[in-house]
From TrEMBL:
Protein name according to UniProt: Glutamate--tRNA ligase
Positions with a binding annotation for ATP: 213
Aminoacyl-tRNA synthetase class I anticodon-binding domain: residues covered: 346-449
An annotated GO cellular component: cytoplasm
UniProt cross-references to InterPro entries, sorted A to Z: aa-tRNA-synth_I_cd-bd, aa-tRNA-synth_I_codon-bd_sub2, aa-tRNA-synth_I_CS, aa_tRNA-synth_I_cd-bd_sf, Glu-tRNA-ligase_bac/mito, Glu/Gln-tRNA-synth, Glu/Gln-tRNA-synth_Ib_cat-dom, GluQ/Sye
One of the Pfam families matching this protein, by short name: tRNA-synt_1c
Recorded name of the encoding gene: gltX
């Protein structure tokens, strides 16, 4: 058992062999919450002993991601690749004490390996999530702890690192449960304190398969969600609820609230489903809490990235961008949706004259004369309104809706929508008139009448 007066220290040990997996992100979050709520420390260790696959760019990307998420580490940044001499000291200690031995066998390019002398006993530990777990270590036999004196394997280096950095709680995915008995045996042989273990349920896809890059592609990596324009607070909020429940109906949390509320004993034992739909909903809820000027600025920057929109003078009209931002914001759940919409040309009609065939202006079996009649009536009504009166979509709605109800909503509103946007699907025509303004709305309706 851990000394109650001992300072709690957790660790996050990513391997820089690829982008940061969202499962690892959740592991980092739970370690961070647990350390912070107990006034402890959260340390980061880079497990970069795989010389072939480890890349500096992956390491830097991971560190940037942790910063983006709002997770600050304590103390120095550990690199296993810089600690080989320390591992050699512990390997020699085990060999000298007869607890490990050199075995003459081929392992890759090596002609000998170092094996741990298994005491062949039952190891029992209490997992904070899974309860008491027992392993008969006999089946592990004498397992390898180093490929040679200069190349310790994971099981030895992790025990030494956890001991030297004072780690009190090892919180990790339950795919590591099978590693625990080996590490306990090594720790006992070295005479170091045993940390408290907590093994988290794996994050699963909808079909309950393990999330993997091979099967699910880039969607398993944090940078995928960063590029799509999700908010860091929303990612933190959502992943904290994958496999853990606060025991209340509350779903929207800030990171500070999560630190106060998180209870590791409430983490579920079974696999947790990753639901992109729920993530989108949570992200939108966090977006709604942003200041209006922040929302408008982000939308403006995204719009500017589009070649067509960036060339329009309208993009520099602050009032116009504010009006269009209201409509855009209502139809997105993440910032990247704007890139998708603009890329498909769905917003181009706001910035340039719409192009369409005259036939599209006709509602079902309606005739050109009827459509022309309704559009002319609308122009006459708009002409009577002062420019500064268009302060909301309701101005146009109050002007037109009763007429549309009397003469058939489809007959009136369908050609109006097409005239303004050139699209069968777009914001309602009242919103379009509000955004485009009186003058341009009349101009576009007049062009539609000419087509008819």
């Amino acid at each position: 058992m851990q000394d109650k007066n001992q300072k709690i220290i957790t660790r996050f040990p990513p391997s820089p062999t690829g982008p940061l997996h969202i499962g690892n992100v959740r592991t980092a979050l739970f370690n961070y919450f647990f350390a912070r709520q107990n006034g402890g420390q959260f340390i980061v260790r880079v497990e970069d002993t795989d010389k072939v696959r480890s890349k500096k760019e992956y390491e830097l990307g991971m560190l940037d991601s942790l910063k983006w998420l709002g997770l600050s580490r304590d103390g120095q940044l550990w690199h296993q690749s810089e600690r080989v001499e320390i591992y050699k000291k512990y390997l020699r200690k085990l060999i000298d004490e007869g607890k490990a031995y050199v075995s003459q066998e081929t392992e890759g390019d090596n002609k000998e390996v170092i094996r741990f002398k298994n005491p062949n006993k039952v190891v029992t530990f209490t997992d904070l999530i899974r309860g008491e777990i027992s392993f008969d270590t006999t089946e592990l036999k004498d397992f390898i702890i180093a490929r040679n004196i200069n190349e310790p394997v994971y099981h030895l280096s992790v025990v030494v690192d956890d001991f030297q950095s004072g780690v009190t709680h090892v919180i990790r995915g339950d795919d590591h449960v099978s590693n625990t008995p080996r590490q306990i045996l090594i720790g006992e042989a070295l005479g170091v304190p045993r940390p408290v273990y907590a093994h988290l349920p794996l994050i699963l896809a909808k079909d309950r398969s393990k999330l993997s890059k091979r099967k699910h592609g880039q969607s398993v990596s944090l940078d995928y969600y960063q590029k799509l324009g999700y908010l860091p607070g929303a990612i933190v909020n959502y992943l904290s609820l994958v496999g853990w429940n606060p025991g209340t109906d509350k779903e929207i949390f800030t990171i500070d609230e999560l630190i106060k509320t998180f209870d590791i004993t409430q983490v579920q034992k079974g696999g947790a489903i990753f639901d992109p739909v729920k993530l989108d909903w949570l992200n939108k809820e966090h977006m709604k809490r942003l200041p209006k000027n922040t929302i408008n600025k982000e939308i403006y920057n995204r719009l500017k990235n589009n070649d067509i929109i960036s060339k329009s003078e309208k993009i520099n009209d602050k009032k116009f961008v504010e009006k269009i931002s209201e409509t855009i914001f209502n139809h997105i759940s993440k910032w990247g949706d704007i890139d998708t919409i603009t890329g498909e040309g769905e917003l181009s009609y706001f910035f340039e004259e719409p192009q369409y065939e005259a036939e599209k202006l006709l509602w079902k079996e309606s005739s050109p004369d009827i459509s022309k009649k309704h559009l002319m009536w609308i122009i006459n009504q708009l002409d009577k309104i002062q420019n500064d009166s268009f302060d909301s979509a309701d101005t146009a709605k109050n002007l037109i809706f009763d007429y549309a109800t009397e003469n058939g909503k489809g007959e009136v509103l369908w050609p109006l929508r097409l005239a303004l946007s050139g699209k069968e699907k777009s914001p309602d025509p009242f919103t379009l008139i509000y955004i485009l303004g009186k003058s341009e709305s009349i101009s576009r309706i007049s062009n539609a009448i000419k087509k008819l």
